[in-house]
Each structure stands twice: as structure tokens, then as C-alpha cells.
Amino acid sequence: MLRRFVPFDTGCKPYHSRPMGALEIVLLPCLADNYCVLLHDHGSGQTAAIDAPHAATITAALNERGWRLNHIFITHHHTDHTAGIAELKRHYGASVTGPGAEAERIPDLTREVTASSSLEFAGHPIKVLETPGHTLGHITYYWPDDALAFTGDTLFSLGCGRIFEGDAETMWDSLSKIAALPGDTRIYCGHEYTLSNGRFALVVEPENEALEARVAEVERLRSEGKPTLPTTIDQEKETNPFLRPQSRTIRARLGLEGALDLEVFARLRQLKNKA
Ligand code: ZN
Ligand code: FE
Predict the structure, then answer these.
(1) Residue 125 CA to ligand 1 centre (angstroms)
(2) Is 54 a catalytic residue?
(3) 105 with 141, same domain?
(4) CATH number of residue 269's parent domain
(5) Which residue among the candidates 41, 51, 80, 146 is catalytic per the annotation?
């Protein structure tokens, strides 16, 4: 079924690149299904990367635009988000910000952050949300003035990350923090998993019309080789089963009508692991 879709483009061409005030955003496919996001502030000429899956892909995208990399922001320690750090740091002298709680597992950090750190990039304020569960130190970068959030492998479009290091409660708390951001916040996550997430979502909540429409859109985008990101908080609240444990349809499907939201979430995550 998946095979009729255009395979993921592992080249350095960005799927889209749009000017947004002074900030230009490039969503860059890396490796099999990872994303790096490049943010270029036209006023200062500075460029930041969110995660560093693959140095050569990122360098090629920077060269194409005549940009130099000043900052790298890392969401968590997994290799598919950090493998490019050392080379990019050496090549550009970029600073590397990442979760203090995972500093031992991310050797090239130049700045360790927690929820109380105050951060900015070229005058754009950045808040750190601690969003453990996928890994224990995982962080999300929220850019309030730009209505952007980089959720790594915590919140995906129509899904959420696997719980490798935390438990269901930890992950649910983290997703709840992200869900509390303003509805128009644009979400960039670490992987292009939206289509397979969408198929699972339709199984557990088949009567959700917004979800049906979103999956149709996602199928079209992927068949054209385009990304399904960014999404928004509002869109995810309407369509992502992991943010919808209150849904009567989902509860009825799982036979968990009277359960706590956390219990519904935990069951959904278990079922998705087996899907
Ligand atoms: Zn990961
Ligand atoms: Fe990942």
C-alpha cells in the first residue's frame, strides 16, 4: 500500500522554503525520514538548525543559499538527531544547544539548557519545554514571537514518539504541555511519519471528519513527494488520537469508556507499537 507513494527524497533539496517576516524556514529531509529545520534571520544573516541528522545534507543546503551555520539546537540524544553535530561544529564553529539532562550523551554541546534557561536566536526569543518520555531529557523549543515549536520525537503529526525512556504518564504530561501552546503555533517535528500515523488514527477514530480530510491531504502531499509539515496545535488537537483521549469514539473502540485520559493514551500507545 505504501509502495505507490513517491519514496522519501533523501537529497538536499528542501521541499519548501518560505519567507516568514524576517525568518526564512527550510524544511530539510535527511536520512530515511528525518527532518532538519534551517532558520535564517534575514536581518542579521544568522542561521540556526534544529537537530543535525546528517552533516553533508545540511552543509549542501546551506551552501546552496550562501548561508553559514551559527547555532544548532538539539532536541534529544538519539543519533538520527545528533550525528551531524561534530562536523557542523568543526566546519562552521556553530554553537550547540541541547538538553542539560542529556549532556553526557551529546558530547559536543556548548550550552546545556533546562526549562528555566532564557534563550534567543537573532532576537527571536525561545522557550525550552521539558518534554521527556521518548527520552528522559527530551526538550521542545518554542518560539513564541514566531508562533513556532520544534517538538523533535515527542509530538508528531497525527502521532507521538515511542516511549523509550519514560513511562506513559511522563509522555502524556509532555504532550499535554505542548498541546497547551497557542492553537496557531506551527509545529515542526523530527520525522515524516504522518501517513502511517494517519492510517492508525483512522482505525481508532474512524468517524472523525477532520481526520479523514487530513489523511486525504497527507496522501496527496506524500504522493507528490511533499512534506506534511508544519502542522498546527489546533489541527493536531482535532485529528491526532494521542491528543484526543477524551474522544468518545476512541474510548468506545478501546472499551475504555470510563477510564482516565492517561489510561486511554497509554492503551493507544501500546496499540500503535504493535501496528
Ligand atoms: Zn528519537
Ligand atoms: Fe528520531
Answers:
(1) 25
(2) no
(3) no
(4) 3.60.15.10
(5) 80
Tally of CB atoms within 10 A around 4? 8
Whole-angstrom Cα distance, residue 148 to residue 144?
7
Q: Which domain holds residue 100?
A: 12-112
Tell whether 241 and 207 lie within a shared domain: yes
Alpha helices in the chain (DSSP H): 55-65, 79-82, 85-92, 168-179, 194-204, 209-223, 233-239, 248-254, 261-274
* pLDDT score of 244: 98
- Give residue-wise pLDDT tens across range 197-226: 999 999 999 999 999 999 999 999 999 999
Query: Taking the chain, what is the end-to-end CA distance rounded to the nearest angstrom?
Result: 15
- Same domain for 49 and 137, yes or no, is no
* Ligand 2 midpoint to CA 181 (Å): 22
Quick: pLDDT tens for 1-30. 333 444 444 444 444 444 444 899 999 999
What is residue 112's three-state secondary structure?
Answer: strand
Q: Report residues of the chain scoring pLDDT below 70.
A: 1-21
Q: 273 C-alpha vs ligand 1 centroid, how far in Å?
A: 15
Domains in the chain, number: 2
